[in-house]
Write the structure tokens for this entry.
Amino acid sequence: MEFQLGISLPILSLVILILAQGSEAGGIAIYWGQNGNEGTLAETCSDSMINLAGHCDPYNINSCQARDARQVATYLWNNFLGGHSSSRPLGPAVLDGIDFDIEGGTSDHWDDLARYLSGYSKKGRKVYLTAAPQCPFPDAWVGGALKTGLFDFVWVQFYNNPPCQYTSGNVGNLEDAWKQWNSDISATKIFLGLPAAPEAAGSGFIPVADLTSTVLPAIKGSAKYGGVMLWSKYYDDQTGYSSSIKSHV
């Protein structure tokens, strides 16, 4: 069977997962790599899982436009994960997993890619799979992949989606969507995805006071609650959002 996933990775984006202290605490995941003014990767990781976006622009990964999911998985394993290649864009650095942040193109075969990537975990090194679906359920692009039950962390984007995001004084739509994601998706942990500043998204920004007093108390009791995902490191640097919410997550 031949098909084209349409994966083109001229830039990469890293998701950094900063875990809070204590087994019962949530964590904060933040996307790094979309802006040259957001500091170095080393600085971002100093207190902290990673998603690359922008800072790796010199590495035009045309090979990712493979004809089938197995080839794509093999390429990712050999060039970014635990495999071996003479053309690893990040040199000897070994990433822990792959994030499915798919917001266009085809919805076909992402489930196949997830299965092939997960298969590499049998080689002794765990390959983490994460995804950033939109909050309307099911997600239009990665909904099929998420049904595989192979994903470790799912950071649902509760922004730019008015039907399921928070509006001032009304947590009902977000809470209903959160419950559906938690009940219908088999993932280790699910994160509340938010913009770190009003300018970071078209809609869906939640002021710190509303998040800590209204939204988090409504969702933290769920068994799959993992914490908060923020878009992005650049905007978080401007607002200090993660620092303001860390003790409440």
